[in-house]
Amino acid sequence: MYFILTAKSLLWVTLSVVSTITLFTAIYSPKWLVGPTDYNCISSKSLSTETNNTLDSPYYEVRCRPSVGIYYRCKKINGHQHCGSFAVEGLATDSLMFPFVWKIGLVLMSAGVFVSFLMSAMAVGSFCKQSIRKKSVFGIAGSGQGLAVLLYLIGVICFAAGWGSERVVVLCGTQSVPFVSADCTNGSGLYTAAFGIVLTFATAMLSGPADRATSSDKVALQLEQGENIVFLL
C-alpha cells in the first residue's frame, strides 16, 4: 500500500468534502424562497445592542420575513420568528403542507448527499488505495459525483415545480405557478444549493486529472525507487 498525494488529488478530495457539506447545508436551509412582506418580530437582546426599549427588557423588535425551503420554513409564531420543519409527519405529511413534488425533490437531494458522502469517503481513501479490483477509485468516485449532480438538479427542478402549491401561493401571492414564484425572491438556501451543484460538477470533472496525476511518470519513478510515501505538490 502506498500513500500518494498530489496537488490535483488534494484539491479533488477537498472539493469533494466541501461540495457534500454545501448541499447538506442547503437542504436544511429554510430560505430557498423569501416572502415579499416583512413584519416586526421579537429577538433576544445581546449585551452590545443598543435599543430604545427599557434596559430591563431582555428582548427587542427586529424586522423579519417569512421564508420556506424544501424541508424547513420560517414564520412568525407568538411574536417570535420561528424556523422549523413543516413536514411534521415526514414524507407522510399532507400534500397541502408538504407538496408531493417537494417530497420527491427532498428524497432525490438526500440521495445525492448520501452518494456524495460515499464518494467523499472514497476520495479520502484514494490517498492510500488508488484502485478497487483493478478499477480506478478516481473513476468510480467521479462517476458517483456525476450521478449526485443529476439527483441534485432534478431535486431543485422538483422544488421549482411546486411553486404553484398552496403553501407557496400563501407566501408569494396568487400569481405563483410552477417555476414562477410571483412576489417571492430567491433566498440564500437556493443559491447555496446552486453553488453546491456547480461545485459537485467541477469535482466530478477534476477526478480525471487527479487520476492522471497519481499515475504519472514522476510518481511511478518514486515508487520504483522504493518510496512508500509520495508527495508531488
UniProtKB/TrEMBL annotation:
Signal peptide: none annotated. It is found in: Membrane. It is a multi-pass membrane protein. Its main location: membrane. InterPro entries: LHFPL. Keywords: Membrane, Transmembrane, Transmembrane helix. One of its GO terms (cellular component) is membrane. Pfam families: L_HMGIC_fpl. The chain crosses the membrane at residues 9-28, 100-125, 137-163, 189-208. This is Lipoma HMGIC fusion partner-like 2 protein. It comes from Macrosiphum euphorbiae (potato aphid).
